[in-house]
Amino acid sequence: MSNRYVYGIVDSDTVEFETDAVAGADRVYTISHRRLGAVVSDIDTTDPEETDEDAQIHDEVLREIMDYDGGTTIVPMQFGMAFEGDRELKNVLRGARPAFRRAMNDIEGRVELGLKLVREEDADIDREALEEEVAERLDPIAAQSVANDLFSDRLVLNRSYLVDEAERETFDEAVAAFEDDHDELMVQYTGPFAPYSFVDVKIGAKQ
Questions:
Q1: Looking at the domain 110-193, which fold is it?
Q2: Is residue 158 within 8 Å of 147, Cβ to Cβ?
Q3: How far is CA 97 from its chain centroid?
Q4: pLDDT exceeds cutoff 70 at 206
Q5: Which residues of 155-194 are buried (b: 16+ CB within 10 A; e: fewer)?
Q6: Coil, strand or helix: which one is 50?
Q7: Phi/psi at 133 (nearest 5 deg)?
Q8: Fewer Cβ within 10 Å of end Cβ, the chain: N or C?
Q9: What pLDDT is stored for residue 65 in this prediction?
């Protein structure tokens, strides 16, 4: 199990704990280069299979890292980033250092929250007016937001929001008030997640 599976990048070298990790690993720890740390676990391949179970474990480990030591900012990696060893991984940290620093500054102290609005079967929805109302209620509270795919005919809005931890309760209340005002919609409010939708750092091909 000499390969390193990467969950994300932190501004620390001290993240370490035992947990159920990807591909049967039972511990995550940090490999550091100049105060940037890749949080990893040891696996026996550089091409892990993305099963539903391991995809869920990947997200759960990221949540544990976010909660670690009273709160830790992590630049999350998508599932499947694995490297042959420490040297290859440190080369990546060295090469992408400025990009990781920028991403970390953008998301520090913030979480991603998801909002999907699904119309009831017989409801007649003015999507443009609905989008305007949601933006009016939620955009002033969020730091950023992005639109996601509408993958169903009844899905009328699908957005991700980057929200300061200090504004989380206010955002929760705004979503709850919106839900109270719209019986014609099913509100699916999810999170917190590591802020995948607001990070765009590529760390190159697997080694």
A1: Alpha-Beta Plaits (3.30.70)
A2: yes
A3: 20
A4: no
A5: bbbbbbbbbeeebbeebeebbeebeeebeebeeeeebbbb
A6: coil
A7: -65, -45
A8: N
A9: 94
Calculate the average pLDDT of the chain.
91
Q: Which letter does DSSP use for residue 78 in this model?
A: P
pLDDT tens figures, 49-65: 899 999 999 999 999 99
Q: How many residues does the chain have?
A: 207
Q: CB 34: neighbour CB atoms within 10 A? A: 10
Residue reference for tokens 């079967």? 121
Structure tokens at 177: 């008030």
Whether the pLDDT of residue 204 is over 80: the answer is no
- pTM as predicted: 0.84
**Residue 25: partners with Cβ closer than 8 Å, 6 or more residues away:** 1, 5, 41, 42, 43
Closest to 8 (Cα-Cα) out of 205, 206, 207, 195? 195
Q: Please report which helix (H) or strand (E) contains residue 168, including its range.
A: helix 168-180
Q: What is the pLDDT of residues 139-170, one digit of tens each?
A: 999 999 999 999 988 999 999 999 999 999 99
